[in-house]
Write a structure and sequence with these properties.
Distance between the termini: 43 Å
Organism: Mycolicibacterium frederiksbergense
Number of strands: 9
InterPro entries: 3-OH-isobutyrate_DH-rel_CS, 6-PGluconate_DH-like_C_sf, 6PGD_dom2, 6PGDH_NADP-bd, HIBADH-like_NADP-bd, HIBADH-related, HIBADH-related_NP60_sf, NAD(P)-bd_dom_sf
Keywords: NAD, Oxidoreductase
Protein name: 3-hydroxyisobutyrate dehydrogenase-like beta-hydroxyacid dehydrogenase
Bound molecules: nicotinamide-adenine-dinucleotide
Family: Belongs to the HIBADH-related family.
Largest sheet: 9 strands, mixed
Length: about 300
């Protein structure tokens, strides 16, 4: 399949590489061109512009946030103008429900397909083609995109025909992960200050009632106190908590824990931790208990 790939950050670079490995023809674009060269070495063609990446059957965006997806889609020479009729835009970024709705309407008007297909899994999972894809869109568009999902992930969950549903499910999942990071950080600060070994504590948790990837992955980062390089930056973590809050506001669903998490992320950013992995938000508790700031 001829695929355009836009956004070669922590996640996009690995996802695009797996599309090449699966035999797809990939034309890659990134705002800063230096990120394209490693992919060209793996067989991709470098796009000269966003429009140049829109010549195939599908274009995938894996960009940071709503602003980036809006700029690349609606901007001059953007996806909306560049994609041919019948082609499909697959948005894998974690974006707001409101933007997913706007993209759905705009692409429909232009005669394009649109699928929201955010993913669960960090850059290591992306590199190993082990992502979980949450997809929603018209069934024909989802079917067109399914070889892509097979190449980047271990399993795809189709959550209906309304793309915004996939975005909402993804946002709710990241809210849950952030809640675990915060509570795990508080629990570890408690036992850690009393002198219990954090690795041993984590081993106990994950061998008993908390045997889940989210506890293993984030517990490991918190026990090792390793927050650089960021697999998922704290700035993006704040973005996702805010997306949960705005979805809650739109649907009139109070999310008191998300309100608290928003303030925790603001504390992390205000104290210089914006570029740290988002798991550093869980290390604020140990700092507040007299320990060191996360770094
Ligand atoms: P990243 O910061 O590493 O990469 C972001 C990409 O967006 C870069 O290619 C950058 O050039 C591009 N970009 C940013 N602003 C832009 C703009 N205005 N115009 C054009 N391009 C712009 O981010 P990432 O970690 O790869 O995450 C990408 C998306 O995937 C985000 O929505 C994130 O929430 C989501 N996500 C990340 C992870 C993770 O663990 N890193 C996991 C699942 C989902």
């Amino acid at each position: 399949m001829r695929i355009g790939f836009i956004g070669l950050g922590n996640m996009g670079a690995a996802m695009a590489a797996n599309l090449l490995k699966a035999g797809h023809e990939v034309t890659a674009y990134n705002r800063s061109a230096d990120k394209v060269a490693p992919l060209v070495a793996q067989g991709a063609r470098a796009a000269t512009s966003v429009a140049d990446a829109c010549q195939g059957d599908i274009v995938i965006t894996m960009l940071a946030n709503d602003d980036a997806v809006e700029a690349v889609t609606f901007g001059a020479d953007g996806i909306l103008a560049g994609l041919s009729a019948g082609a499909v835009h697959v948005s894998s970024s974690t974006i707001s429900v409101a933007l997913a709705e706007r993209l759905t309407a705009a692409h429909s008007e232009a005669g394009h397909g649109f699928v929201s297909a955010p993913v669960f899994g960090r850059p290591e999972a992306a590199a190993a083609a082990k992502l979980f894809v949450v997809a929603a869109g018209k069934s024909a568009a989802v079917a067109t995109a399914s070889p892509i999902f097979d190449a980047i992930g271990q399993r795809t969950f189709v959550v209906g025909e309304a793309p915004e549903a996939a975005s909402l499910v993804k946002i709710s999942g990241n809210f849950l992960i952030a809640s675990v990071i915060e509570s795990l950080g508080e629990a570890m600060a408690l036992v850690g200050k009393a002198g219990v070994d954090k690795q041993q504590y984590l081993e106990l948790l994950t061998s008993t009632l908390f045997d889940a990837p989210v506890y293993r992955t984030y517990g490991g980062l918190l026990a090792r106190e390793t927050f650089t390089p960021a697999g998922f930056a704290a700035t993006l973590g704040l973005k996702d908590v805010k997306l949960a809050l705005s979805a809650g506001e739109q649907l009139q669903v109070p999310l008191p824990v998300a309100s608290l998490l928003r303030d925790r992320f603001l504390t992390l950013l205000a104290t210089g931790g914006g570029d740290l992995d988002w798991s550093a938000v869980g290390a604020l508790s140990a700092w507040e208990a007299g320990g060191k700031p996360p770094a």
